[in-house]
């Protein structure tokens, strides 16, 4: 019975003499009214404009990738379309493809001894071909294990390749 009377008391509007709780004020604001940008008077009497309380949280359009140069000033290569349309559960495929791509550019820089755009930012075609012929039909655990092994090898070799690229930039 106490529970029912509490629910009724919460549902009824407050009486005139009762204090109101600002956290319990569930009235809807008038959305047709102009935003609250009233000017407030400063101590010297001048009006001080108040900031607009509206914050635009609209997501920017990310459908088009910006064609910004990479870290070393080279234009980025077009990635395979299938990589861009993966579901959240298939991200492991993208990570493996990226590790294969990294292994290719590291190999290119090591073998050429230089870090120009052709060696540092190769086409994704070779990485895609390797992925499709060797890894695409493997199950998820085999692909994740392959990604970890390639990543471990890349971490060791990447340092030397990046040293060469950084030296050429200076």
What do you see in this structure?
The chain has 170 residues and is mainly alpha-helical. The protein is built from six helices and two strands, in the order αββααααα. Strands 1-2 form a two-stranded antiparallel sheet. The longest helix is centred in the last third of the chain and has 30 residues, at 140-169.
Q: Main sheet?
A: 2 strands, antiparallel
Mean pLDDT over all positions? 78
Count of separate DSSP helical elements: 6
* Whole-angstrom Rg: 30 Å
The spatial strand order of the largest sheet comes to 1-2
Overall outline: elongated
Strand content: under 5%
Q: Please write the string of helix (H) and strand (E) elements.
A: HEEHHHHH
Sequence stretches where pLDDT stays below 50 over 5 or more residues: 4-8
Assign a percent range to the helix content: 40-55%
Please count the beta strands (DSSP E, at least 2 residues each). 2
Keywords:
mainly alpha, two-stranded antiparallel sheet, 170 residues, 2 strands, 6 helices, single chain
Task: Please provide a brief summary of the model.
The protein is an all-alpha fold and 170 residues long.
Secondary structure elements and pairings:
Elements: H1 2-11, E1 40-41, E2 47-48, H2 81-84, H3 91-112, H4 117-120, H5 125-135, H6 140-169
Antiparallel strand pairs: 1-2
């Amino acid at each position: 019975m106490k529970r029912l009377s509490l629910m009724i008391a919460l549902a009824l509007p407050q009486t005139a003499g009762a204090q109101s709780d600002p956290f319990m004020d569930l009235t809807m604001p008038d959305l047709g009214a102009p935003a609250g940008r009233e000017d407030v008077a400063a101590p010297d009497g001048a009006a001080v404009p108040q900031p607009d309380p509206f914050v635009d949280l609209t997501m920017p359009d990310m459908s088009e990738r910006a064609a910004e140069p990479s870290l070393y000033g080279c234009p980025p290569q077009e990635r395979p379309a299938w990589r861009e349309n993966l579901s959240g559960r298939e991200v492991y495929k993208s990570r493996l493809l990226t590790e294969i791509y990294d292994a290719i550019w590291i190999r290119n820089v090591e073998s050429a001894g230089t870090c120009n755009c052709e060696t540092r930012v190769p086409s994704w075609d070779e990485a895609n071909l390797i992925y499709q012929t060797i890894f695409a039909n493997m199950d998820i655990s085999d692909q994740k294990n392959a990604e970890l092994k390639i990543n471990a090898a890349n971490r060791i070799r990447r340092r030397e390749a990046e040293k060469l690229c950084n030296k050429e930039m200076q």
